[in-house]
Amino acid sequence: MEERVPVCCLCLLVGMHKNHKAFQLHEACADFKSILETTMNQLLKRRSEAEHAIMDLESLYSQTLKSTADFRERISDKYSRIRVVLDGDERLMMQIIDAEETYMTEWLEAQRGIMEAQIKDIDSLRASSKSLLRETNELRFLQQITAHNLCDPLDLAPIQEVDKDLCDLEKLRTVERLVDDLSVALSQHFPRMWSYLSSPALDSKSAHPKLEISQDRKQVYWRRQPVSEALSPQPYDSQYSVLAQESFTTGRHYWEVIVQEKPYWLVGLTTGPVDKKDSQNQGSSILGVNNTSWWIYHGDGKYLVCHDTQEKQLSVGKRVRKLGILADVQKGKLSFYDADAMTLLHSFCVQCTEPMYPMLNPCIDVNGLNTQPLTMFWIKDPWDWHVNTNGAKE
After folding, report:
1. What angle do CA 374, 325, 376 make, to 5 degrees?
2. Is the link from the previous residue into 191 a cis peptide, with omega within 30 of 0?
3. Which helix (H) or strand (E) holds 347?
4. Are 209 and 69 members of one domain?
5. What is the dihedral of CA 25, 27, 33, 34, to 10 degrees?
6. Cβ(95)–Cβ(379) below 8 Å
7. pTM tops 0.70, yes or no
8. How far apart are CA 27 and CA 131, in angstroms?
9. Using one digit for the tens of pLDDT, what is the confidence trace for 260-286?
10. How far apart are alpha carbons 156 and 200 in whole angstroms?
11. How many other β-carbons are positioned within 10 Å of the β-carbon of residue 344?
12. Domain B30.2/SPRY spans what residues (predicted)?
């Protein structure tokens, strides 16, 4: 029994015993169970971590769905707003083009009517002359030529050549340029000044007696006077004005006045008519040259801006055919633009809490050279920028 030495089972199977320490069976089982228990605990911990990871993933999944839904809704809303803005801007531009086409074609038709009337007069005169030339009775010929006032050679005014610049399509080119700019930087172009475009109705009650207002209240003329009532050749007088019916005290307001080839005109903004007695006694109280009136005047190619009797001549490269006026009450700024090219002519700082009225002065007509009207530019059924954009936000 003493010679017997315990050996491991593995050594019996593979050969010579290696003299390593041998464990009893229960000890080996206990060790292996301890290792397995440690492994089980590690696996359980790992499983718990995996379960927590799954929970975190599920939370992230839900968050992702919610976030993408929120982004989708917000982005869709942004696109909806952009579509509202773009649809309105496109409609506005088409209305500007339509209005420009209407105005220019009507103006051309009016000019054609004038030429046709001249042709009719010429044809009538030629017919009379031709009839007289056929007269063989010399006495009757002399009587008829005297009766028709054809004894002397006619002194006819030359037919004025058509100035093609009067129908310059710069406004339409401006529309196209603005749309091109929009494609480059969309958000930088809204709202446009044309988004605030209105056409103030003229108040005939505020008009000077020598002014005539059209039936639609969009035009003001210098009333033709008999020779006996001929006025001083003073180019302009700010008393000869008419105000818009409605005033404003807040917001942004934009309107355009068509001046075309008119040699003298005056357009601006004022707090309203002054008392007639004051206007007669104090020159500084005359409408248009007091401290609550701001205007721009054109006379024979020169442009002046004036406020409170202080005048400044402007440097304008190209003749203004449509004048744009932008009044931003909140910013205290009044700006005059070449409405076709949308270039700034001049800006005033305006600090005024009184109601302000658009003001037009067609200026005195001298020798029939300044008979053209001042006309409010307007578009049919304008798209209301503020109502539609506010509705889109809601």
Report:
1. 30
2. yes
3. strand 343-349
4. no
5. -160
6. yes
7. no
8. 150
9. 999 999 999 998 664 443 444 444 445
10. 42
11. 12
12. 180-378
